[in-house]
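Model it.
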Amino acid sequence: MILLKHLTRPLAALLFTASCALSTGAIAQNSFKNAVTTEQVQAELMAHAPDGVDPGKAVWVGLQLHHQPDWHTYWKNSGDSGLATSLSWTLPDGVLAGDIAWPLPVKIPIGNLANYGYDNTVLLPVPLTITPDFKPSVLNPELEVKLRASWLVCKLECVPQDGDFVLRIPVKGSTAMQGAAFEAAFKAQPQPLSQASSIAIEDRTLRVSVIGLPASLQGQTLEFFPETPEIIETAAKWTQSWQGAVWTAVVPIAQHRSGDPQVMPLVLAAQLGSERLGFVTQAKVTGTWPAMVAPSAANATTPATQWAPGSTPANLPSSLWLALLGALLGGMILNLMPCVFPVLAIKVVGFARHGNNPRRQRVGGLAYSAGVVLSFVALGALMLVLRGAGAQLGWGFQLQSPAVVAALAALFTVIGLNLAGVFEFGQFVPSNVALLEAKNPSVDAFLSGILAVVIASPCTAPFMGASLGLALALPPLQALAIFATLGLGMALPYLAASWSPALARKLPRPGAWMATFRHAMAFPMFATVVWLVWVLGQQSGIDGAATLLTLLLSLALVIWTLGLRGRTRWVMSTLAIAVFALLTASIGQNVIRPQENTSNPASTALWQPWAPGKVDQVLASGAPVFVDFTAAWCVTCQYNKKTTLANAEVLADFAARKVTLLRADWTRQDPAITAALAQLGRNGVPVYVLYQTGRAPVVLSEILSVAEVRTALATL
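Modeled.
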C-alpha cells in the first residue's frame, strides 16, 4: 500500500499537469472567435477540407450569414441600393484566397426599387490555393485562417456591420463536418453556358439574346441578374420571350448608369419544381450607348447625373457656360456668407488705411484678386489630383482635418492679437524686411486674398454648388476654369470698389478713429477662433478642444513676452517658448488624432443618422425623407440648423406629413457622404434634399428659408 501510495502521487501529478495543459489548449482554442451574432445576423466562418490541407487538395472557407426574418444582405451587384458583402483574408505564406463563389441571389422588391441579395441563410464560399511554400508547424500542424468581414444588413432600415473571425484547420485529416453547407452553396452557384450570348443596344433598351440553355427550360420564365451594377433599371418592367432555343429579353437602360461596358456577365435563374437552377454567361454588347442626361447647372432643384471623372457630357458647351455663370454669381454671393465675415474685417481695415491713396487702393485690389483667384485654382487643382488618386474629397475638405483646424485657430489668434495692438509684425522681422513690406502693401493684400479663400471654402453659396459638382466631372482645364471663375466672382466686389472713384470719395479720411476701429476688428478674429475650437471639439472631443485652447494661450504668452524689454523679456520668452514647444509636441495625441465614434452626433430625438441605402429603405415604406448634409465647420449649416430647421412651423409640417429626418454629418471625411453628394451634382455642404417615392429628389437652396421648406413640404 505504501509503495502504491508513492507511485500514485507522481502519476496523479502527471495526470493533473496533462489535464491543465489540455484545459489551457482548450481555452486558447476557444478564445479564437469564429462566429459573430448581432440582432439581425448570425455570422460564422466555416471550412471544408475533406482531404486535409496539402498542395493540390480542395480547401474551401466561407462566411455563412443566417438572417433574422425580413432582413437581408446583398449580392455582388446590390441593385438600386445596398452594398455587397466584403471579405478580407489574412493567411499564412503559401496560401492564397480566391474570389467569392457567389450563390444565386434573389430579387428583393422595395417599393419602386429592387435589390439583389440573400435572406434566410446563405454561405459565401471562397477557394484556398495551397502552394508548396506553405510550411505548417511541426508541433502544431494547422492552417490558421483570419477573416475581416463587412456586410450591410437591411430591412426597412440598414445597419452596417463587421466582424473579425479566426479558424484553425487541421493539416492532416478530414474537416468535413460542415460539408453539407458547402455542398448546398456549390449547388446554388450558377453554371457557365458553353455558348456566347449577345446584347444589342436599341434606343434606351438592351435586347439580350442567350443560347445554350437546357431544353427543359424552354418556355419557362427566367430571372435576370446582371453582374455589372448601375446599368439597367433594376425595378422597371421588362419583357422576355423564347424563339425556339433562344431566350431573349428587352431590358430598359438606367438613366443614370455607371458606365458603357462592352461585355456584361449575366446570371439567369429558373425554378423547376423544388429545384432552382442558375446559369452565367458573358454577353458581348453591340451598338452605341445612349448619351447620359446632363444636369442644368442653373437649376438647383434638379438632381444631377453622376458622371465619371474626366467624362464629357453630351451638351457640354451650354452646361459649361451655365456652370461658369453659376460660379461667377456664387463667388460674388460667397462674400455675404458667414464664413467670410472675419475676412471682411481685414478688408475694411485695408480700405480705411488707403482711403486717401487711390493708386494703393487699386494695386491692393488687384493683388487681393490675384490671391483669391490663384488660391481657388490651387485648391481646385489639389482636389482634382487627390480625387484622381482615388480619394473621396469635397469642397471644404481641408477643414475635415483637425490639424488644419488647429493651425487656422493659431493663425487667427495671431491676427487678432495684432489687430488688438498686443504686438506689431515689424517687431519680429528685420528692419529691411519691414521697410520692404511698408513699400509693398500689395503683399498684405495678396496674402489676405489667400486667407479669404481658406476661411471661405467651408461655405457653399447659391449657384455655386451645381458648378462645383460639374467641375469635378469635367476635363482638368475646364474644371480649373470654373474654380478660377469662382475666385473672380468672390474678388469682383473688392476689385470694383478699389477702382471706383465715387466709392473712394465716400470713404472716411484716415485719422485717430482708425486705431479704435482696428482694435474693434480683433473681436471678429477671436470669434472665429471660438468657432474653430468648437469645430475641433466635434472632431477630437473635449480633450482635443482643451489642448488647443491651452496651446493658443501659450502662443499668446509667447507673443506677449517677445514684446517685453530688458532681461525679463528673454527669461519669460524662453519659458513661454518651452511651454509652447512642449504642447506642440504632444498635440497629436488629443487634437490631430480624431475622436472615436462612440456615438453618432447626427442622432437626436428628431433626427436620425444618415447611412448608405437608408433613404431608399425609408422611401420603400412610403414615407418621405428630408436629408440635411451638414458639417460642424460649415457656419451656414449651423445657422440654418438653429433657425429654419429649428422653426416650430417647419417642425410641425415635418411631423404632420410624417417626414423622416436624416442628418449626414460630414465634419470628418466620409467617402459615403461624398459619393452621395456627387450623385446630387454637389461637392460641398450645406445641401438639403427632399425625397418622395416616385418623384425626383428636390434640392433646396443653400441659404435655407422657412418659406422655401414649407412650400416644398406642401407638395407632398
